[in-house]
Amino acid sequence: MLRPGVFRRECDGSFLRISRLPSGWVLELLEPGRPAAEIDPRCCRAVWSEWGKNWGISTFEVGRFFGEEVLLETNEGRRITWRRVRAIDPLTEPQLFEGTASLDERGLGVVRGALSPEEVDAATEACWEYLEEFGILRDAPESWPEDPIGVLRWAGQCRGSWLVRGNRKVQAAFRDVWGTDDLITSMDSLFLWRPWKALDQRTLGGWLHRDDHDPVVNDRCTVQGVVALTAADDSTGGFVCCLDSHLDHTALGWRYVALEPGDLVLWDSRLYHASEPGCDASSYDPKSLLRLAVAVCMVPRAAADPATLRKRLDLFRCGGTTMHSPHKILDAQIHHRGDAPRVMSSVEDQLDPGMRRVL
């Protein structure tokens, strides 16, 4: 049976997106930017026949997909449109996405150098100090966590993350988005990716998705963000998105967004996005993290009701972690680590004025 969704094909890092429109089913292949001949053979471990086995496609053969569009017949006699679209090269053009101006049109904005090199170093050091409280040691790669997608969902009160949230340029970017400086921040996860040599050590991908559709203020949906503390491109892997897909659900072509340490990438939550590994990390230091990044999202304080604001303060005090929506805190979206130290009850003892401003 066909079912809507976005599915990853491990052999070349592509995505298969299945949609059901009034005209019928649509299958869209979102391919990586590099030609198949250049894909690292270590990434090849699946074959096309797996799709047919799972979804009942009777004519799913490799030789059929060299055209732009192909009609397929399924075992159930339905017609399916297959669109083959190659992704564009990684986004490296800062002039096209500088700041927040392109969020409405393209769904993406990049603030270059939101953190200075000194601020990147301070945030990185604070992250390690926090992680080392749990036995995750910077000089012992064997102690680094093996989360399949490289997300620490319990690290919302990491001091390094708070340095990012309290950063004046990060806050200024969200102020530009919302037109107010009275903001509240998510207390979100850390991205921590280990370097890899063997394929089974690589962070998993394949979770291209969209998030909030409901307007927060003045018809604008949530704007999410990530601050890179390490460089990211198509070799390391990192943030990927399908430009324009916040408005056009058929917009195809997922692209890595190249980032330098300290860059802030912002996107409309309706944009198809994910974190996706690269296919070649062999040149990177096995004793250094491949990726360290902080998720951050801010919305106007007015978007949260009084009960939510009180719950946010309680969550901070008990060391909890939220998802990306600061104004929506559901019990199912709160994460704790059992051995996480409790946060001190006094906010003043933990946060500087810039951080307290967005709590």
From TrEMBL:
<protein>
    <recommendedName>
        <fullName>Phytanoyl-CoA dioxygenase</fullName>
    </recommendedName>
</protein>
<dbReference type="Pfam" id="PF05721">
    <property type="entry name" value="PhyH"/>
</dbReference>
<dbReference type="InterPro" id="IPR008775">
    <property type="entry name" value="Phytyl_CoA_dOase-like"/>
</dbReference>
